[in-house]
Amino acid sequence: MIGRATTLVLALVATIAALVVVPVGAHATTPATVRGTAATSVRRTTVLTKAGHLRAKYTVASTRRGRCWTTSLENGRLYRCMGGDLVMDPCWKEAGRHSVVCLPAPWRTKVARLRLTRHLPATSRSRPRLWGLRIGDGVGARCTANQGASFKVGGKWVSYYCQRGWVLTGRPDRSTPQWTMSTARKVGGHYRSRGVKHLSVAWKPVVH
């Protein structure tokens, strides 16, 4: 009787242990799995309605005379313009006005309006590129595409300038739903590589 009772007790303990261990293990791995598979959110940005008028969420912060001499580096159907000494890209042509409105960064809501002094150049069919990116992995810095001179960090060209001294180098790896990209940060006057990080958001400038 004693041997049989001991066997039953041991079997019961093993069963309880199995019931406890499985949920704990599942709970520990599930959040990491969910975070690891979250896809990069791609946002299409335009400041105009389908009718060609400024959308309600945007306001005009400044108005000046200017011209657009070529197409945008971010989307061939948009424009690269100049007002005074400022280069603005991308810019959208407003309907019913001889003017364009330009947005400095895809997450901003204040635009600059340029009253055109010359005719607009012909547009092209070049597809929109990634105008802005946000670094994930707890960094949260937002970045805009480099439209000027560049330099190398860790053997790769700086392609995006970001908030708080961060930069993105090379091109994004889009082979998985959650894109990644090489990063660096300015420390003591020098940029130092910070490894590959996930990209949580990407912005593209578009037209309707």
Structure write-up:
The chain is of the alpha+beta class and 208 residues long. It folds into 2 domains: 43-116, no CATH class; 132-205, no CATH class. 17% of the residues lie in helices and 44% in strands. Strands 7-8-10-11-12-13 form a 6-stranded antiparallel β-barrel. A 5-stranded mixed beta barrel has the order 2-3-4-5-6. It is globular, with a radius of gyration of 26 Å. The model is unreliable at 1-34 (pLDDT under 50).
Domain module count: 2
**Could you say which overall geometry the principal axes of the C-alpha atoms support?**
globular
| Rg over C-alpha atoms, rounded to the nearest angstrom | 26 Å
Q: Which structural class matches the secondary elements?
A: alpha+beta
The helix/strand series, from N terminus to C terminus, equals HEEEEEEEEEEEEE
Distance between the termini: 83 Å
- Could you give a short account of the major beta sheet? 6 strands, antiparallel, barrel
Hey, roughly how much beta strand do the residues contain?
Answer: 35-45%
Low-pLDDT parts are: 1-34
Write down the overall mean pLDDT.
87
Summarize the structure.
The chain is α+β, with helices and mostly antiparallel strands. Helices cover 17% and strands 44% of the residues.
Strand and helix map with partners:
Blueprint: H1 2-37, E1 41-45, E2 59-71, E3 79-83, E4 86-93, E5 99-102, E6 110-116, E7 132-135, E8 142-145, E9 152-153, E10 156-162, E11 166-173, E12 180-187, E13 190-205
Parallel strand pairs: 1-13, 2-6
Antiparallel strand pairs: 2-3, 3-4, 4-5, 5-6, 7-8, 7-13, 8-10, 9-10, 10-11, 11-12, 12-13
